[in-house]
Amino acid sequence: MSCSLLEFCRLQELKTVRDYLFQSQKSEPAGEKTQTENELSWDSAEWESAWDGGDNKEEEATSAPTVEEETTGQSEPWLQDCVVSLSPCSDLLVVAREQKAVFLSAKWRSDDSGREEMTLAVTWTGVLSTDEGECVNSSICIPLASQKRSSTGRPDWTCVVVGFSSGYVRFYTENGVLLLAQLLHEDPVLRLKCRTYEIPRHPGVTEQHEELSILYPAALVTIDGFSLFQSLRACRNQVARAAAAGSDVIQPPPLAYKKWGLQDMDTIVDHSSVGIMTLCVFDQMKNASILGGFNASVKGSPPAMSQYITVGGGPYTGFYYAVEGSSQPLLSHVALAVASKLTSALFSAASGWLGWNKNKNEEEAVQKQKPKVEAATPLGIRFGLPDSRRHGESICLSPCNTLAGVTDDFGRVTLLDLARGIAIRMWKGYRDAQLGWLQVPEERGDREFSPSASLPRRHALFLVIYAPRRGILEVWAMQHGPRVGAFTVGKHCRLLYAGYRLMGVNSVTSQGWQLHTQQVCLLDPITGALRTVNIPFHLALSDKKSERAKDMHLLKRLTTILRSREVEPDILEQEAKSVLLDIKHPAIKKQALHSLLSNKNAPVSCLTNVTSALYDALKQQDPDEVDTPLLELCSSQLKLLQLYTDIQNLHSAADIEPSSTNQDSLDGIEEELSRVGPTLQRYAQLTSRPSVSFAQDSPDSHLPAQAFLSQMECTESGELKVIRTSETEWNHLGNFMFWGCLCGKSPVHKVCDTLQQAGISPQQLLSLLLSVWLQREKEMLQKPEETVKNLHTLLIALSNMKGAVEESWDTQSISPWWQQVRCTCIQSHNAAAALLAAFVAHCATKASITSRADSKLQSEWEAVSLELEQWVVCVRQLEDVLVLQTLLLMPPPQGAAGGAAAQCSIKTLLEGGTGGIADSVSKWVFRHNLAPERLKEILQKKEDKDADDKLEQTAGEEQKEQEEESQEDADRTAELLVAVCQRFPHSLSPDLLFAHCCWEYVVQWNKDPEEGRYLFWAVEHLKLVSSPHIQLGISTMMWSTFIVKRLSAAAFLMEKVGKSPKDRLCRRDVGMGDKAVTSFLGCCVQLLQILMEADSAVEEVPAPELSVEEVWFGADGPASIAELALDQRGVHYPPGATPLPGKNAFFGDLTSIQLMPSGDMDPGLVSLRQEFLLRVLTGWVQAIELSALLQVNPDILKRHLVCELYNQGLDFRAEEVMLEVEDKDVLGSQLLVLTGQRLSYSLLHSQSQTQAAMELLARLPPTLCTWLKAMDPSELRCPLVPLSQTSRLVSRLIEILPENHAQYSLALHLLEAVEALTTED
After folding, report:
1. For residues 591 and 597, what is the distance between their CA atoms, to the nearest angstrom?
2. Most CB within 10 Å of its CB: which of 69, 105, 469, 987?
3. In terms of Cα–Cα distance, which of 879, 889, 872 is closest to 834?
4. In 963-1062, which residue ranges form alpha helices assigned H by DSSP?
5. DSSP 3-state assignment of 60?
6. Are the beta carbons of 939 and 1025 closer than 8 angstroms?
7. Are 310 and 271 in contact (CB under 8 A)?
8. Contact at 8 Å (CB) between 146 and 130?
9. Which pLDDT score is estimated for 396?
10. Could you read off the pLDDT of 771-799 as tens digits, one per residue?
């Protein structure tokens, strides 16, 4: 492990940033960019170009930039002219120049490979300056901590602090919203720096307060971090509220700050606020003696002082100390202003008394406009590092506040010891250098082996120096350590070092936080990459005597050798052995051994020899000095490598054991195989279709030793434990162990003995064996007899292992060993392999129980029945699943819906509930596009064996005649479906299957409403359901779930449009095209018709009883569609008609009674019905009046009215109207027929016929009997009329009919019959 540069972020739209900031100079020649700033700039540019070796020659051009220069504009050193600041959380970057600024915020995006990466994209651009002529001089981004209790260390938001040449300091949000602006001093802001809370690493270290410091040419302003944090939060909340309310922002109160007037230094360009420090007693007495002389008094306790370091000129570095608690002098603002002007006039070498007096009025006018500025407290320099020719350029404070790096105009980097105030180290040849610090904690793994493990974690300090003239980034260990890293980077990069973290953190809120901050970042403006420096802690120890550094070097060397694929195995073994024996540190030695054992290029012999050599070397050492975990690791890995080699040799050996399987025990299996043989053969044909797979996932691929080692683990007791990581790796391991035995190519008992001696539990071996058997179903079905025999041998061998079947197994309970086999078969989707495994296990269980009973000289009948009953049920279920899975694997015909074939197992079918089987078959019916009539025809084959034979003969004749493959497939599909229905007579009864098919089709139609055929077939399936109860429930559920919303939308749309709506409106409102709407409405009519007929037939037929097969009683899942249908409530027909409440009632819930909230009918609806009936009566009266005008005899209408009233059973009202009829003879003939219909219904068609009525019928004259039988009582609307009313009607007939009438005698016979009936009642 060595130093590395890691890219963690990338800037987007860099050209956009550059073009925006340099808009005013696009048309200017490159050489004139700095002409106005300094008249002698040509001399400097020539010297710099000579220094850079000609890299900047293009800047001397005076012509406009060419197209080539514009395209390569990113490579120009434009970033050096900008103010750049990066948040320590790396989520906000500010680039500013003159008046403009660009804010870039973090965004996550996926690269080409799908990996998430962080980018910085432009989120705000704008002009920050508000006063004329002011420019941005400095900026920093301060992340503010969240105050929420659930926070884990991410910032709540980031504040951008900008210092201007006018003296203003302004605070902005990430979106460029101004929060606060304050004029702290009337000179340009030189530098902004921040100090945040750091958790003290050692007890006794002074806790530093948070602070923002602002440097002016002769003053230093400090703002307390806590008050600044609260003010910024308040300003942000107030701005947000004002923006939400649309009101003006209230001007916030000014910030509280301290201002120090830095004296006794000619020029100041940079500073560092070290924080509060306390002198020791000796230093306190020394300073008192130097400052106060011999008679100076010394206080009892040393005062706390804030230390400030400045760099510039005269002296080169200055040390200032401000005693905490000192107050500013009580001078008035005017007096202080005059004094400051007088001081500046006396010490200014460029201006004189006349010049100052000349501009006095202008300055006063400016001062009147600017806000009041507090005076600075004079602070004298304590001491400095005088160097008259050297001028400091920047200072960078270390994270521990004890060291600082200073750059100067001589190209030197000086390291200062701040506590002693001296320079302790200097580097030369670093002109325009940029500095940063890295503090690296000790790794926890290394700390465990350190002699000072109980002490706090150590931290290593590194100084990062970027030399842009040479394009190199260097890392130096402190304080006098060597250079531990060097990287060649671009010459135009910027080294970004914040030196602070989150503001608003204290010792309480920071507990448990993981602060995600970058200490040093390198920004490359050409590629836009942001990179951070990664330094391992051990590099701080990298001297000539460091064993760890040497060990790390050896580990790196071994890693390089292992990555190379061209190394010979002998050389690899020799090098690996040498490196492992040379490494001293146990942790690194263990890491190297893991790297070797996980390498795929190393052969097994190499791994064994190297590990054995290391084990021998450790054994020869003193037992007290040997690292026990490393020794145990070598021992366990050697054991695993030996096991791997033994199994490999057994599989490659040619000697095969003779079969020792008892033939008697296999007879039962062979019978079962012959019974299910045709189904297995068809299943094998369907599963052997070609499919795509990757070579590395193939079960035939070789298992490398590294994969074997990664899945095995040695326990403390010396046994081996198999680690189940993924299903693929588990299957590969099982293939390696058992596939040779299953194929008959390896000695079964030798392999089992080897695995047992290794200490692997029989339960894990059984799981591996079953996974191989189930996974390699296709190969197994090619030779089922042979593979089943080998499986039987393996299963018996594993069962005889110690710890497999418990010796104390209670015969009254189920064996956990065989239960494991059953659970695996129950969960498997490979139906054929699971069934064959169940056959073998059933046979082995029977043999095991028999042998136990013989050994005990008794017959355990209960144990036999209990254990074997479980296997009988399991085998029956697996046979059912096999037939069902064979059906589901049938490929759909061309043009069908298609889709992947469903996979089923006992577990999935049980979890699917009582309707799980029917649901699977209904999905298969949909995939195969099987028409409802065709499905009905197939199901009738199952019910009628004779018809089945005839259909098969007919199909065979057609096959011989036409020889079409499609017909063969159809017959084979029908045969499979019939077989499935025969195995599931209850779960796949016709009603249940039709109900599930109906539901499946309507669900598919709901997914794609344009396919009207799906809804049509759903209704057709519903028609085929024979039970009205299930029909009614399915109809109700279809209506409420899928139909009513679309139908109501279509109805309201047609009412709104007033005609057939266009396709666009149908798609918008109903969700389907106009043609699909037409088909949909037709299906709705059929559905409502089915619903009405089913509702009327429900009372006549009892509800069906749903049941399942005996072996499938354990279903525990959702209710079937048929069960849900039977649970539906009865239908209440909504009141018909046209008003709006009627529409709402029609589209409401069918099971609800549409009443008003009070429980009464809607009075509006009642009034409309009343109006309708009144109009009917009015129409009848008008018809009577119109009869004369239309030359229609009114007497005919009156006779019709009398007959209609008698037909309705309203005899008394009919007698009233009869008085108005004139032609009584015709009326009598009409009423005679009506009377005969009533009597015919009572004697011949009524369900409650009595014996007396039958005797009366026998006594009647033959002519009357013949006449009554010819009557049709179905024309009566009310046939159940009391006999008294019918007797009264016959009496009226005799009165109105003359005696000479042709039917008078018939009326007399009727009177006698009615009187006889009345007397008997």
Report:
1. 10
2. 987
3. 879
4. 965-983, 990-1007, 1012-1023, 1028-1038, 1044-1057
5. helix
6. no
7. yes
8. no
9. 96
10. 999 998 888 888 888 899 999 999 999 88
1034: left (phi over 0), alpha (psi -120 to 50) or beta: alpha
- In angstroms, rounded to a whole number, what is the distance separating the alpha carbons of residues 1214 and 1205? 5
CA distance 1281 to 1285: 7
Separation of alpha carbons 1176 and 1182, rounded Å: 10
Instruction: Name 1183's Cβ contacts closer than 8 Å, sequence gap at least 6.
Output: 1197
Question: Which string of DSSP letters, residue by residue, matches 738-774?
Answer: IIHHHTT-S-HHHHHHHHHHHTB-HHHHHHHHHHHHH
Residue 766 · residue 791 · CB < 8 Å: no
For the cut 50, the answer to whether the pLDDT of residue 208 exceeds it is yes
Sign of CA dihedral 584, 586, 590, 593: positive
Q: Which two tokens stand for residue 108?
A: 């996550």
CA gap 631, 674 in Å, rounded? 57
**Rounded distance, CA 468 to CA 432, Å?**
7
Those residues whose C-beta lies under 8 Å from the C-beta of residue 890, and which sit 6 or more positions away, are 686, 924, 928, 972, 973, 976
User: For the segment 1230-1246, what is each residue's pLDDT rounded down to a tens digit?
Assistant: 888 888 888 888 777 76
The first and second tokens of residue 326, run together, are 């000192």
The amino acid occupying position 239 is V
The helix (H) or strand (E) run that includes residue 83 is strand 83-86
- Cα(1010)–Cα(1023) distance, integer angstroms: 22
Using CA atoms, how far residue 303 sits from 285, 306, 327, 921, in Å, is: 12, 10, 15, 90
Instruction: List residues bridging with 437 in a β-sheet.
Output: 463
Residue count (the chain): 1321
CA distance 737 to 1266: 95
**Separation of first and last alpha carbons in the chain:** 115
Instruction: Please state, in angstroms and rounded to a whole number, the distance separating the CA atoms of residues 416 and 272.
Output: 12
Residues facing 7 on adjacent strands: 531
Tokens 């004094």 map to which residue? Answer: 339
Tokens of 912: 């699917």
Distance between CA 1031 and CA 1090 in Å, rounded? 8
Of 251, 104, 102, nearest in space to 178 by CA: 251
State pLDDT tens for residues 237-279.
Answer: 999 998 888 887 778 888 889 999 999 999 999 999 999 888 8
Q: Do 505 and 198 form a contact (C-beta atoms < 8 A)?
A: no
Q: What does R_g of the chain's alpha carbons equal in angstroms?
A: 50
Tokens of 581: 């024996």
- Containing 1164, the helix (H) or strand (E) segment is helix 1163-1189
Peptide bond into 479 cis (omega under 30): yes
Whether 61 contacts 29, CB under 8 Å: yes
Model pTM score: 0.55
CB atoms inside a 10 Å sphere around CB 704 = 18
| Other residues' Cβ atoms within 10 Å of the Cβ of residue 481 | 19
Please confirm whether the linkage preceding 456 is cis (ω < 30° from 0). no
Exposed e or buried b for every residue in 1042-1067, given b needs 16+ CB within 10 A?
bbbebbbbbbebbeeeeeebeeebbb
Run of H or E residues at 465: strand 459-467
Query: Virtual CA dihedral for 126, 130, 133, 134, nearest 10 degrees?
Result: -80
Dmax (CA) for the chain in angstroms is: 169
